[in-house]
Structure formats: C-alpha cells, structure tokens
Amino acid sequence: MPATNRIFPDSFLLGPSQVTSYRHGNRLVPVDMSLSIRKFRTYAAVLALIICIGMNTAGIVWADVQVTHPVTGEELRESQTFTYRMLDEAPTLDPQLNQDSEGFDILRDLFEGLLNQDSHGHLVPGVAERYTASDGNRRFTFHLRKTAKWSNGDPVTSEDFVYAWRRAVDPEVASDYAWYVELAGIQNAGAIQTGNMPIESLGVKAVDMYTLEVDLERPVPYFPEMTTYATFFPVHRPTIEKHDIAWTRPENMVSNGAYILSEHVPNEYHSRTRNPLYWDNANTIIEKVTGLVINDENQALTRYFANEVDRTGIPAGQYPNLKTQYPDQAISMPSLCTYYFIFNLSDSGHPSLQDRRVRTALSYAFDRDIIIDNLLKGGQEPAYGFTHPATAGFDPQKTDYAQLDQVERDRIARELITEAGYGPENPLNLSLIYNTSESHKKIATVASQMWKQKLGVDINLKNFEWKTYLVRRKNQEFDLARAGWCGDYNEASTFLDVLTSSSGVNDGQFHNEEMDRLMDESRLLDDPTPNYLQAEVVLTREMPIIPVYHYTSVFMLKPDIRGWPFDNVQNNWYSRNLYRVKDTH
Amino acid sequence: MLYFILKRIAIAIPTILALIVLSFTLMHYAPGSPFTGERPLPPEILTNLEAKYGLDRPFPQQVARYVWNIVTEFDFGPSYSYKDRTVNEIIAQGFPVTLTYGSLAFIVSIMVGATLGIVAAIHRTTWLDSLTVGITVGAQVLPNFIMAPILVLVFTLWLGWLPGGGWQGGQWPYLVMPIIALSTSFMASIARITRSSMIETLNSDFILTARSKGLPFHEVVIRHALKPSMLPVISYLGPTFVGLITGSVVIDIYFSTGGIGQHFVNAAINRDYPLIMGVTILTGILTVVFNLIVDILYVWIDPRIQY
User: Fold this and answer.
1) Could you tell me if A240 lies within 8 Å of chain B, comparing CB atoms?
2) Residue of A nearest to B147 (CA)
3) Is A190 in the B-facing interface, judged by CB distances under 8 Å?
4) SS3 sequence, A439-498?
5) What are the pLDDT digits (tens) for A1-55?
6) What integer pLDDT is reported at residue A491 of this predicted model?
7) Region of residue A121 (phi > 0: left; psi between -120 and 50: alpha; otherwise: beta)
8) How many CA atoms lie within 13 A of A112 on its CB side?
9) SS3 call for B87
C-alpha cells in the first residue's frame, strides 16, 4: 500500500519567530528633532515624571508598560495567574501510571507528547514537528524538533519516548493503563504484559536521536490522536532511576512541558510555574497555575464568587440560574461522554429482555427530554445513539426513533410491549441497578415511573456502593444497569467498540455479528464513517442499550480568562494557551 | 500506678493485633478490589498489579506479611490509590494537620464548653441559664456539614475576612473556620455534661458545709465544686478526642485542609487496603492512648479511685 504523507498545514510549522514578545508602550523619541525641542521634551518628560510620582503617592498607578496579546492585541492583566478547583487529589503525577482526568489536566502542562490538541481538538505539533503514516496505517514515523528540552537542560530525544512507552507496558511497573498501549495496537504490547516477551520487543524504535518509528500490529488510523494522552508522554529516565516513586515530587521532577511543578501539598493544592526551557516559552502568557482540591462543589462555587478560584464546576441543576445571572461566566460545552442503561442479554438477565420488542419499547417510552429539562438542566443533548454527536469526524444521522415525537414513540412502545405479551394483566418485573448518587437515583426513579405509567412495567431499583455496583455489573447480576462511557480518544470507535464481542466493557453481553464485522472492517478503511453510521443503525434496531443523554461539561469561568478551548470536546485545555485580559468588555 | 500503665499497654498490644486481623478480613471480603474500575482491567494487567502488591498470595500469608512489615520496619506499605506515595508518607503528611486543628478544637471545646456549663449551673433558672442552654442545644443540632458552608458564606464571601479553605502550613486565618466547625457540637456536649454535673455537686453535703462555714460562693465553686464536677467531663474526653480526629472528614472535605480525615472515607471507597489499615490502626492506637490518659487523670483528680 502506498505511503500516505500527513504533514501539518504550513502555518503550524512557522515556529515561535512569528510572535516573540509583547509590544511595549510607545516611548520612543524621534532622533531628527531640533535641540530646543529635545530640551523641551526632556523638561516635559521630567515634569511628567514628577506628576506621575505625585499621582502614584495619591494611589493612582501609572502603567508605563502596556502589555498586549501578541495575536489578538487585547490588553493583558498584569498578574497572569490561573487558579482552578479540583474535585480530588490527582492519584499520581506519573504519566505512565495516570488514569485520571484531573491528573491528565496537570500532566498536559508539565509534559509534552509527540502531538498536542488545539482549541478544536485537532492535532498540532508537540515534540514532533511532523509525522508520516505508511504501510496502511501500520507504521508511523515521527520527526522530533531539536529545540525540545527537559527542564534540567537535557535534550528531549526519541530514546525518552521509547523508555516511557516501554515503561507503560512493563509488568513490573504494572500500570493500570497498559491496556491503552494495547488499544493503540503497538506491536507486542499484549505479549509484554503477560511476560511472554521482553519489554525491548515493543514496536517502538529510536531510528536516530530525533526520529521515532512505531510499528503496529494492526492498522490504527487514529494512532496519532492517541499520542496526545499522558500514557504516551516522554519521561526523564535518570530522574526516575534516581528517585523511584518519589520522582514526581516538586524537588525531584524533571519535565518537558510548558510548566514545571513548583509546589505540591497532597489533598490541598499544587502549583505549576512557567518552564523557561520550554521550546515555545516565548508564546506562553500565564505565569502560574494553581489547582486547589475542593471536594464539595457548592463550597467551590462559593469560593469562586469570593474570587479564590477562577474556574469551578457547576453543581447539578444550577446551570440555568447561573446562566441568567452570569451569562458571560456560566458555560456549557459538549463533553465526550454518553449516559445509558444496559440491558442484560446474558442468561442471567430477565428472559423477556431477549425479545427485541421489549427492549425497544423500554427505550422508546423513555422520555429523555424530561430528564434533561427537569433534572439535569445543563444543556445536555438527548441521546438516541451511542456515539457522542460532537465526536470528531462523526456526522451523526438522526436515528429513526429520534425523528418521532414522544407521543408517537409512546404509542409504538405500547404496541410493542403488548405484542411481546406483557401488559397490565401480565406485568413485567425488572431490576435496575445504579451506583449510589443523588442524580443517578433521580434519573432511575423517573425512568421507573415512566415505564410503570406507560407500559405497566414494574422496576425494582437497587443502588450499590461504587465498587459493589461495578462487580455486579461485570458479573451480569442485573436486568438493567446504569452506565456512562467517555471517549478515550476523539473518534467514534471509542464508543462503538464498547458494544462489540471482543470488548472488555460489554457488560450486557451484546453479541452481534454485523456489529463486530462493521467495527473490524472500519480499522482498514480510509474513511470509516459509513461503517460507524451503519453500526449506529444496528444499535437502533437491536437496542442493546438505552442511550439517555450526551454529557456536557458545565462550569464557571472568570470573564477575563481567554483562550479556553470551548470547541475541544475532550476538554483538553493547555494553560499555555490561556491568558487574562485587563478589560472584560 | 506504673504497674497499672504497663498492664494496660500489655493489653493494648493484642487488642491492636486483633483489630488488624479483623479489619484486614472485613476488607478482604468486601466486594470489589482496589483495581475494580468502570473499565475492567485485562487479566494480564490485573495479574501484574496483584503480583506487585502481593495480593496473589494466600490470605493468611498477606496478613502475616503485613503485620511483619509493621513490626519490623514500621512499614505500612504502598498506597494503591495514591501511586506516588506510601501510607507512611500520607499519614506523616496528613496527621500533623489533623492533629493541629483537632487539638485546638479540643481545647476550644473544653474551655468554652466547661465555662458555659459552669455559668449555666451557677445561674440556674435565670435567663443566663436559659440562654446558655439555648446556645448549646442550637450548637448540638447544627451538624458541621451545615455549619461549614454557612461559615464560608459569611466570613469568606460576605465579609471577606477569612480564606474559604486551604491550610498553608497552619497559618491562623486558615485555622479559624475549621476549628469553629469542628468544635461546636463537642463544646455543646461538654457544656451540658458540666452543667448537670455542677448542679449535682452544688447540691451535695460538703458544698453546703463549705457554704455554711461562710465561704463566699465563687470560692466554693472554684475550690470545692470544680474538681469533682469535672469527673464526668473527663470520662467524656477520651472518646471526644478520637471523635475529633475521625470526625475531621467533614472538615477536610469542606475546608480542603489536607488532613487524614478524608482518607477514612475515600480509602474505603477506593478499597485502598494499606491506607484503610493505616488509618484504622492509627485510630486504634489513639483510642487506647487517650483512654489510658483519661484513667490516669481520674486518679489524679479523685484520689479515692485506685487501680
């Protein structure tokens, strides 16, 4: 198969020379002026200085340096800091061990992988200036920039990536996220984890200091997208070998991102400050980023209004009010997750669930709008398919039942349930499990009422503590189970693969040949979208799950903070793209 | 006395050991494991993780190894949920924080609570008594998870006097609200106990004798009534202190103080076995130590008590 070259648009390769420093105030004196005028100018300047000193003492600050944003020209605030609320302490700051989204927020600033995401979630160069795909998406070659440095001055080389990636699958390191390397299809990733192959056999090779070659076991067209995740970030070998698990402490850590870890008090806060050795440091504006751990979301919101944090999540149900009061601060943006109910299609599930008509009736009778408009109130989108419609390259087609109105869906649902032989005289009795949480409880309660009223189905609600719920779900000890799935990378297969036979998360045991074939085939195609759309059609027909809603991320953001990537559905923000303006209007 | 202390310590050791074995067993049989997640781990990763943490060994061997590491090296093991830290480090970092605001809250509860109780008892059936009883009942029914948000709303958002959370090495502006929130209900309990005990003492014969000698009332209270009426309060202090430490979970959650309180809940939810064990053993030791201190105080206050 001919090699396909994928090179970034020219504009990405211009480098830092484009914009180097902030414009300073106009303080130049023309040289061709006559002496007398110059003298006068000098007197005037001295006079002005005296006046200004006087004003200063009177409490008026004379800004002699006006700083503006290099691209937009907006006037920047003097103090360029950003403080945000974290729900919990990040479990680790080791990129290969990380599996947490808040940990990833920090790691994106401290480390830089081959590629980054821009404000739309599209790929832009990171440590790699460009890459090529060959052998039918089985081999990727990355060309690293020579200006990338570690925070101790060492150059970032392809060997650093090889070391990091081997670490991710090393059985001794035992990373929970080793599966991610396997998902990316890198040669021998699976065999190394089982201890059947040495870690050196991993399909990643340093051709020279600045060329990295990756060999995959199968075609993975979205491999470059996957390199933006922390598992594939480089790490500094001498630091890890010297300090072992303590290498992530501020006093030990050596990193290659736009920021370095300057302080860290677990469960209280951490801060990161600009890395002067970062290759694109000239374009970084925010000086210091602080993450405060505030477990309680209402408490965090109060502290947001007290100006102690610049960003915090909005507690469930409060979005509409806050949006009315603070239209420029309350934000709702799509987030790459889908909420759904799983039908247990295995033998341990209720026998009626084997009947496609029963599953369809329950899905049709479920009024998603009520959940969104009356319970969640965060601008979520009703789900009639599994893939989040904001997924990159996925152009969602309205599934057939999405186009009906609820009255029509209810009518069909009643017909189907009667056809299947259930009704008031032969009521269906199902159990629904969810993990203990106020909002899951509300959704499950409303769902059970809808099914009771519309179809006469009795639902037995059971809530379990998180881990117990997971075990029951995995062992198919339920009829219906609440679930949520978030995309691991920005591509439709991250959702649709869940419902294939080879998936490890197919807790409802849905096995469908057409679905499996469509997804297997999609990996070999240049444009897999038709397969994805067909897979959604299969799901609509077979209804192995009830899609409920597509998530949004709702949060408050101070109005002087600019550069937030509102169009990045994975909410991957990089502090070096943020800045604070002086005037919020 | 020394014999008594030694005997108590000798009993404490098997008690703690029993606590370890019991907690370890309960934990082991709780559904799920530290590595159960929404995305189930592939078996090979699970095997590697279990091997790394020694969870692949037979259960009795795990318990024995755990106890052995504590006894020989004082090593409580790695944390499963905070992968960059050991349990020793987590406790070493969080416990001083909790101990600081816990002790201060303890002192505040005793001082304020005892004073309120004495004032109420002396001025029994006056408006002062009713006011004190009113305050204590109010303080007792107001749980700290309601109190904490109110405090932040008033002192941080409205008045702007205090930071809404954090610890910053224990600077006093960061201490005020956690101490108020933590001490209120204990203060109320101490006030109630002191009041009833003081009323009882004031009605006893030796007080009547003292008064009939012509001693001024305040002197009677300070010299004769105070000590005996503190006995029930002291028996309450041991559990109180341990309660302050374990009850600090709410403080950590609402004020981001970074103490160990939060681990009591989170470690259990995460099935972080070594961390659960670490905080459980810590609580066990605290309980034993404080009960011992209380018993010693008893002897000191009431010479009639002998061990």
Assistant:
1) no
2) A299
3) yes
4) HHHHHHHHHHHHHHHHHCCEEEEEEECHHHHHHHHHCCCCCEEEEEEECCCCCCHHHHHH
5) 333 333 333 333 333 333 323 333 333 333 333 334 444 444 444 444 444 444 4
6) 87
7) left
8) 32
9) helix
Average pLDDT over residues B24-40: 84
**CB contact set of B58 (below 8 Å; sequence gap of 6+):** none
- The token pair at B70 is 């504590």
Alpha carbon dihedral B288, B290, B293, B299, in 10-degree steps, equals -90
For residue B307, what pLDDT is reported? 63
Confidence of residue B294 (pLDDT cuts 50, 70, 90): confident
- Which pLDDT value is given to residue A37? 40
CA distances from A81 to A273, A496, A579 (A): 9, 40, 8
* Residue A312 β-bridge partners: A556
How sure is the predictor about B234, in pLDDT bands with cuts at 50, 70 and 90?
Answer: confident
In sequence order, the 6+-apart residues with CB closer than 8 A to the CB of A256 are A111, A112, A127, A148, A149, A150, A151, A156, A160, A234, A236, A278
pLDDT at B299 over 90: no
- Separation in Å, CA of A451 to nearest CA in chain B: 27
CB pairs A-B closer than 8 Å: 148
Structure tokens at A15: 């480098």
Which residue positions in chain A have pLDDT lower than 50? Answer: 1-64
Instruction: Report CB contact under 8 Å: B49, A176.
Output: yes
In this predicted structure, what is the pLDDT of residue A32? 36
Q: What share of chain B is helix, strand, coil (3-state, %, to 5)?
A: 75, 0, 20
**Which residues contact residue B103 at a Cβ distance below 8 angstroms, ignoring those fewer than 6 apart?**
none
Q: What is the pLDDT of residue A49?
A: 45
The answer to whether the beta carbons of residues A551 and A86 sit under 8 Å apart is no
Q: How far apart, in whole angstroms, are the C-alpha atoms of residue A191 and residue A459?
A: 44
Distance CA B241, CA B189 (A): 13
Contacts of A553 (CB under 8 A, 6+ apart): A313, A332, A333, A334, A335, A571
Report chain B residues whose CB lies below 8 A from the CB of A248.
84
**Which pLDDT score is estimated for A164?**
98
Contact B42 A179 (CB under 8 A): yes
Q: CB of A386 within 8 A of CB of A532?
A: no
ipTM value for the complex: 0.87
pLDDT (0 to 100) of residue A42:
47
Contact A484 B40 (CB under 8 A): no
The H or E element spanning position A141 is: strand A139-144
Residues in chain B, total? 307
CB within 8 Å of B195: residues ≥ 6 apart: B116, B117, B118, B120, B121, B132, B133
Q: Per the CB < 8 Å rule, is A194 touching B36? A: no
Cα–Cα distance for residue pair B269/A435, rounded to 1 Å: 12
CB B153 to CB A302 under 8 A?
Answer: yes
Task: For residue A269, give the 3-state DSSP assignment.
Answer: strand
Q: What residues of chain B, 161 to 220, have a C-beta less than 8 Å from chain A? A: 163-167
**Over pLDDT 90: what percentage of chain B?**
42
Q: Are A86 and A294 in contact (CB under 8 A)?
A: yes
Residues B230, B114 contacting (CB under 8 angstroms): yes
- What is the pLDDT at residue A138? 93
Q: Give the chain A residue whose CA is nearest to the CA of B271.
A: A467
Kindly report the three-state secondary structure assignment for every residue of A282-321.
Answer: HHCCCCEEEEEECCCHHHHHHHHHCCCCCEEECCCCCHHH
| Burial class, A520, CB count within 10 angstroms (exposed 0-12 / middle 13-18 / buried 19+) | middle
Q: What are phi and psi of B196, to 5 degrees?
A: -65, -35
Q: By the 8 A CB rule, do B165 and B155 touch?
A: no
Q: Find the residue in A nearest to B259 (Cα).
A: A267
